User: Fold this.
Amino acid sequence: MTFSERLNQLLIDTSHEERFSGAVLIQRNDETVFEAIYGYANRSWKVKNRVDTRFRIASISKMFTAVAVLRLIDEGKLTLDASVIECLDLGNTRIPKEATVYHMLTMTSGIADWFDESGNWEEDWADLCRKHPIYLFRRNEDYLPLFVGEAPIASVGEKHQYNGAGYILLGLIIERLSGVSYFDYVQRHIFDSAKMLRSGFVALDDVTDEVAEGYISIADETENIIGWKKNIYSTTPEAVADGGATSTAADLVKFSQALRKGLLLSNEMTQEMLAPKVLANEELFRGYTWKYGYSNYFILDQDERIVRWGHTGEEDGVSCRLYYYPRENLDVIILANQSWCAGSLGWKIHDLILETTQ
Assistant:
């Protein structure tokens, strides 16, 4: 069987088990290597997902924030070593003065997060939702009370720990220095520049054409899926700088290609965006060294060569991956409108790619 036949059979089997609903696109330059759609955009009315269905992409949109920050550096309005509290007049908070834009981009600031993802995700998220009406979280500044008064969890620069709060702060810096909203800045300088015509910032309670609804599976004690519920009460209602934009598989390929071609940033800042900066994990995983850059995960082989870069996106009713394989020159996009399904699928696709190209 060919690569496409094997992948299609894998996805048919997975979707029949209701373990995946969404879009998969693999592309080399302008050539579509594989493209397929599975599942429903609306389960109630059995409306199927389409090639151009728009999906919420969760933390993949952190990459847009990083590019926007680097663009401000290109414009001479910001530096990587700028103190975040000085940029935002947050001196009366517990954010350390020495925490810089670089530390926020690489998630090495040590500041408290607005939601700590290192524990039991489901239990901790449910606890947050009970204590805070998440339907009120609609702008970057709405998140500040959740973390600016909390004690740091590590010293500045001590280690990488996944952190969305730093990207909230970066979003506020973008707004202050550009004079426009975060959304308008990203729309103008990223979506428009990359010709991402079906990307934007769609609120969960908006009535918007061709956007997939998000679903959370209900399983019995044997992990068999027995039902579904919508994510409307368990996901933040609007996008902010740490995630939540809406896009399509084709648009995310456009973003990745525009970034690599230098259409979004100067050559210097493009290289910065595409370079690993800090160790993300102390131990190897799947035999790879994991590093983090500016909203960019890198896996490196034993010779320290980049095998893949990109970002993940996970929230209730959303599971996504944006990957680029430089040696194979392959863009891989996985967009799903159900929880926690893109990760295992991404690794299966990864194994197929390396098996058929090496």
